[in-house]
Amino acid sequence: MTPTPLPSPGAALRRRGLALVFLLPALALLGAFVLYPIGWSVVRSLFDASGTGFVGLANYRTAFSDDANLTALRNSAIWVAVAPALVTAIGLVFAVLTEKVRWGTAFKLLVFMPMAISFLAAGITFRLVYEQDPQRGVLNAAAVAVHDTFDHDTTYPGARPRPGGPSAAPDGSVRTAEIRSAEPHGPSAVTLPLVGLQPTGLPAEAKPAATDVPGDGVRGVVYLDVTPGGGTAGKIDPGERGLPGLTVRLLDGARTVATTTTAPDGSFRFPDHAAGTVELPAGDFAAPYRGVEWLGPGLITPAIIGAYIWIWAGFAMVIIAGGLANLPRETLEAARMDGAGEWQIFRRITVPQLAPVLGVVFVTMVINVMKIFDLVFVIAPGPVQQDSGVLALRLWLVSFGGGNDQGLGSALGVLLLLLVVPAMILNIRRFRRSPR
């Protein structure tokens, strides 16, 4: 066999030169848009806000001592710990389930569709979804509907006793004077005139207030003492209506001995008791249930993570479904023939064989959440933006959003880069180890 002649040194040099010529545009773009900004950020982080005074590592000390920066670091840690794992787990469940349903393709299309929506549009959408007003916020509309189904209490927020009538207690309840003895079959022993409501705002079942409540024991009527155009204060005038659905308690000192609810005409009865103090508890005047404060300081970060999962679960599902399609079916069929259940197959065969794909999705999500900015900026209202802040948002606020301290902003950018680099290296190693 004739040996293959080695290329001459000149030919090898020409090939290297030609390769360098083709690489020069890519290297120029890499230097201009990646290497130069990184280098300049490192240098700028060593100077003060004006960029003229050298401060050394002072900006990095501020990054780890300022409360707002520490909150951003904490929230970024929460994002890294929660969001990638949930996105990967939900994507895995969707990918497995879509293989077992006839309309799997349509389901994949619906789940992947949010990827076509920009983060700005998704943020505006979820800002409305999380709106506190149940008339506008979808989640709170559902929460109020479920709550009212199981706990439909009638309340009259803003109602208060008329001066000269029953007294308002410090806890917000309304109480009458102590009743020593109730006359049987006489006029109402107790009247509780309330004001602070509009007659047009009463429930549809409210009837004209009862002027006579027959029966034994303690009895009375709770009514709205408001007559358009006049009327006598403290007296039931024609046209004044009772307040139905109120809880009424009868007290013996501080102890509740009986409880009832007002009728449509506002009347109530305690036929088995001849004395006591009538109380309308503070709950009768509480504001109705308005849902959950999703955009409050306590839930703003989980709420934004929920929006992020809605967007990226489709991406994870598609990647994992691709890996699932390449699994050897012989292993799965053999496990079924040996009597393994679907959960055992999923846990002991499917997940271990999908581990490389799941690792790639997880690490990719870690890199992605470290740079999250759009959703937090759009969804979080101004008063709680600091409570929901992450490193990327804090970087922008410090540098351009009013802080005008690009020295501290550059330091935060360098920290963000240092946090992302390990995940990037891990992802690159995974790609190199994967079979070609």
TrEMBL record:
GO terms for biological process: transmembrane transport. This is Carbohydrate ABC transporter membrane protein 1 (CUT1 family). GO terms for cellular component: plasma membrane. Pfam families: BPD_transp_1 (PF00528). Residues 157-173 have a biased composition (Low complexity). Belongs to the binding-protein-dependent transport system permease family. Residues 73-427 form the ABC transmembrane type-1 domain. Keywords: Cell membrane, Membrane, Transmembrane, Transmembrane helix, Transport. It is found in: Cell membrane.
